[in-house]
Amino acid sequence: MALDLDQHDHRILAELQADARLTMAELGRRVHLSQPAVTERVRKLEEAGVIRGYHAVVDAGRLGYAIRAVIRIGNTDEPALLAALASSPEVLTAYGVTGEDSWILEIAVRDVAHLSALLSRFCQQTPTSTAIILRVLREHAPLKPLPTAEVPAPTDPASKKPRRGGA
Predict the structure, then answer these.
(1) Which of 3, 44, 81, 159 is in the most buried spot, having the most CB atoms within 10 Å?
(2) pLDDT, mean over the chain
(3) What structural domains does the chain harbor?
(4) H or E stretch at 110
């Protein structure tokens, strides 16, 4: 369920998504609130689960992971696969999904041999589809407030024009 957030809350979230290392004093200056007020709002956003954590964005390539890929795993929920997914540091993200596949993974591996070993560990009896990521257009995009849906005026079925006044 979405919380009722005001403009200050949305500005706080935008600033923290851009730089989670801001001090509360600097965050307060940027959103035009006092340090105690912004600290209290951040605490409430954390308690409500809107802010779930603060993370460093790490460049996998600089750590020796030359290949990032997306793997689609066919319909299965076998316990061995789930245990392998949970215990594999190469798995950056694992989504349980609807449709023809059960899982979509984002992984990082050193090279093609590492990719092959990972695939054989996960998918001995389950069909997979693997796509190597060549470039990234958008990643870790900040969430922004959803626009308020406008409700269209009721129409008169005979004229297809909006009704005016009473019924």
Answers:
(1) 81
(2) 87
(3) 7-47 (1.10.10), 60-132 (3.30.70.920)
(4) none
Nearest CA to 95 among 105, 85, 107, 86? Answer: 105
Residues 26 and 52: beta-carbon distance below 8 Å: no
Q: What pLDDT digit, counting tens, does each position of 25-49 carry?
A: 999 999 999 999 999 999 999 999 9
**Per the confidence metrics, is the pTM higher than 0.90?**
no
DSSP label at residue 155 = B
Question: E strands along the chain, which residues?
Answer: 67-74, 91-96, 101-109, 128-132
Task: For residue 115, give the DSSP letter.
Answer: H
Q: Residue 48: how many CB atoms within 10 A of its CB?
A: 11
β-bridge mates for residue 109, sequence order: 67
CA distance from start to end of the chain: 35
How far is residue 33's CA from residue 25's CA, in Å, rounded to a whole number? 9
